[in-house]
C-alpha cells in the first residue's frame, strides 16, 4: 500500500467512525466490512480458538459502537485504535478463561526461540518490515518475551514462569528490549 | 506514580500496550490513562509502534458474525437516547445556561480483590467521552458489585425544584429507576439483588429531573440531563 492509498483508507475510516458515533448502524456495517478480517486476525491469534474469537469479535464491534464518539483522529490512527480494542477484549477473554498462574498448553513453545520463519511471513509485509528488523536486532531472550507477550497474551508473571527466571530479571530484560526497540524504530 | 521518571512512565506505557501487566498493575495503569493525557499519548504511541505486527494475521470471520452483531444492535437500540443527549448538549451549549456538560462515569471494580477502592472521578475521561471543550462531569459514580452499593457524587447539577432520578438502561433499552439521588454531595444507592445483574459493562446510567412524588417512577418523563456508559476498569 503506498502512502496516498493509506491516507485515503485512513480518511475513509475516520469518516465512517464519525457516522458510527452518530448512531448510524450502516456505518458500523461498513466499518465491519473494512476491518473485520484484520480485527478477527488479532482476536484469533490471542484466543487460539475460532469460536471464542468470533464471540470476542462481536464484543469488539459492540464496544466500537459505544465508544466511537471517543475516538480522536488527532491522537491515534483509526486502525490502531480498533486493534487496541480488539487486543484488549481478546486479552480480557484470555485472562477470564485462564486461571492466574495457569499456563497455556503451548507455553513452552510460545517462549521457545522464535524461528526466523515466524517473523518472515510478517516481514513479507512492507509496513512491518521495519519493526521486524528492529525486533531481530534484540537479544534472544527479550525478543522471545516480547514476542510471546504480543502474540500469546503472556503477562510478566507467566513469562517468568515459562522461561524459568525470576520476575525482576525478566522485567529488566523486557524493559531493556523495549527501550532498544523504541530507539531502533526512531532511527531513520 | 507522580514520582516516576518520564522513562519509567514510558516503560509502563509500553507494558500496558503490550499486555504485560497483571490485574492490579493493569487496572492502575488504565486509571492513569484516564487521568494523565501525556501518559495516554505514550500508550497510543506504543500501540502505533507495535501495530504493524498485526499485519500478518488477517483472517475472515464466519459469515454469521455480522448478523449476530446486528441482532445485538437492535436489541440494544440506544438511538433515542443518543439523540436526546445530542439535543440536550446542543441546547446547553447554545443557551450557555449550563456551564457543565454531562456524563455519569462509572467504574465497576473487577470482582476481586474484595477491598473497596474509591476511584476519583476521572473528569478528563468524561470530557474525552463527550468531545466538548471546557466541560466537566456532572456526576461521578462508583459501584461495588460485591455489596451492591452504588455511590454517586453530584458535581454540578442544575438548580431545580425537581429531583434527580437515577436510571439504569440495560441492553433491552428500557430504563429502570434506581430511585432519587441527592442534587449535591454523595448519595449511596442500594441496588436490589434482582437489579444488580443490569449494572454491567455497556449498560447506560442516566439521570432525569422528576417530581419527588411517586418516586421511584415507572418511566422517565423527560430527556436525561446526564448519561454515561458503565465502564469496567
Secondary-structure topology with pairs:
The complex is a heterodimer of chains A (about 190) and B (about 230).
Chain A: H1 3-21, H2 25-47, H3 50-67, H4 78-97, H5 107-110, H6 116-123, H7 126-136, H8 140-152, H9 156-163, H10 167-186
Chain B: H1 6-18, H2 23-35, H3 37-50, H4 65-75, H5 79-95, E1 104-108, H6 123-130, E2 139-144, E3 149-154, E4 163-169, E5 176-180, E6 185-190, H7 193-196, E7 204-210, E8 226-232
Parallel strand pairs in B: 1-2, 1-8
Antiparallel strand pairs in B: 2-3, 3-6, 4-5, 4-7, 7-8
What this model shows, in words?
The complex is a heterodimer of chains A (188) and B (233). Chain A starts with a helix and ends with a helix. With 188 residues, chain A is mainly alpha-helical. Chain A has helices at residues 3-21, 25-47, 50-67, 78-97, 107-110, 116-123, 126-136, 140-152, 156-163, 167-186. Chain B contains seven helices and eight strands. Chain B has an eight-stranded mixed β-sheet with strand order 5-4-7-8-1-2-3-6, covered by helices on one side. At the A-B interface, helix 2, helix 3, helix 4, helix 7 and helix 8 of A face helix 1, helix 3, helix 4, helix 5 and helix 6 of B.
Q: What can be said about this structure in brief?
A:
The complex is a heterodimer of chains A (188) and B (233). Chain A has 188 residues and is mainly alpha-helical. Helices cover 77% and strands 0% of the residues of chain A.
Amino acid at each position: 500500500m503506498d502512502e496516498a492509498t493509506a491516507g485515503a483508507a485512513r480518511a475513509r475510516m475516520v469518516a465512517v467512525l464519525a457516522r458510527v458515533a452518530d448512531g448510524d448502524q450502516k456505518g458500523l456495517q461498513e466499518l465491519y466490512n473494512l476491518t473485520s478480517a484484520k480485527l478477527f486476525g488479532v482476536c484469533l491469534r490471542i484466543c487460539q480458538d475460532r469460536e471464542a474469537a468470533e464471540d470476542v469479535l462481536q464484543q469488539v464491534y459492540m464496544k466500537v459502537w459505544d465508544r466511537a464518539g471517543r475516538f480522536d483522529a488527532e491522537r491515534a490512527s483509526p486502525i490502531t485504535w480498533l486493534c487496541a480494542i480488539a487486543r484488549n477484549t481478546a486479552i480480557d477473554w484470555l485472562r477470564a478463561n485462564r486461571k492466574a498462574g495457569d499456563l497455556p498448553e503451548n507455553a513452552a513453545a510460545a517462549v521457545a526461540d522464535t524461528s526466523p520463519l515466524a517473523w518472515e511471513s510478517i516481514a513479507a509485509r512492507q509496513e512491518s518490515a521495519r519493526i521486524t528488523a528492529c525486533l531481530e536486532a534484540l537479544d534472544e531472550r527479550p525478543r522471545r518475551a516480547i514476542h510471546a507477550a504480543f502474540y500469546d497474551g503472556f503477562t510478566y508473571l507467566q513469562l517468568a514462569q515459562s522461561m524459568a527466571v525470576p520476575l525482576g530479571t525478566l522485567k529488566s530484560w523486557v524493559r531493556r528490549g523495549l527501550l532498544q526497540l523504541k530507539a531502533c524504530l526512531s532511527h531513520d | 506514580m507522580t514520582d516516576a521518571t518520564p522513562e519509567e512512565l514510558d516503560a509502563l506505557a509500553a507494558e500496558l500496550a503490550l499486555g504485560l501487566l497483571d490485574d492490579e498493575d493493569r487496572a492502575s495503569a488504565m486509571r492513569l490513562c484516564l487521568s494523565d493525557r501525556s501518559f495516554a499519548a505514550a500508550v497510543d504511541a506504543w500501540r502505533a509502534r507495535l501495530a504493524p505486527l498485526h499485519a500478518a494475521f488477517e483472517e475472515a470471520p464466519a459469515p454469521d458474525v455480522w448478523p449476530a452483531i446486528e441482532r445485538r444492535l437492535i436489541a440494544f437500540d440506544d438511538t433515542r437516547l443518543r439523540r436526546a443527549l445530542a439535543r440536550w448538549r446542543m441546547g446547553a451549549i447554545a443557551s450557555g445556561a449550563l456551564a457543565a456538560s454531562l456524563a455519569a462515569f462509572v467504574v465497576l471494580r473487577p470482582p476481586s480483590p474484595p477491598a473497596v477502592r474509591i476511584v476519583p472521578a476521572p473528569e478528563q475521561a468524561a470530557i474525552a467521552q463527550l468531545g466538548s471543550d471546557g466541560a466537566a462531569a456532572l456526576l461521578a459514580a462508583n459501584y461495588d458489585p460485591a455489596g451492591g452499593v452504588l455511590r454517586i457524587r453530584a458535581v454540578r447539577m442544575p438548580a431545580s425544584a425537581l429531583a434527580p432520578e437515577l436510571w439504569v438502561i440495560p441492553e433491552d433499552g428500557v430504563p429502570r429507576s434506581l430511585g432519587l439521588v441527592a442534587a449535591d454531595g454523595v448519595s449511596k444507592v442500594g441496588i436490589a439483588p434482582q437489579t444488580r445483574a443490569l449494572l454491567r459493562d455497556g449498560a447506560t446510567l442516566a439521570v432525569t429531573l422528576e417530581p419527588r412524588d411517586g418516586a421511584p417512577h415507572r418511566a422517565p418523563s423527560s430527556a436525561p440531563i446526564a448519561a454515561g456508559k458503565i465502564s469496567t476498569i
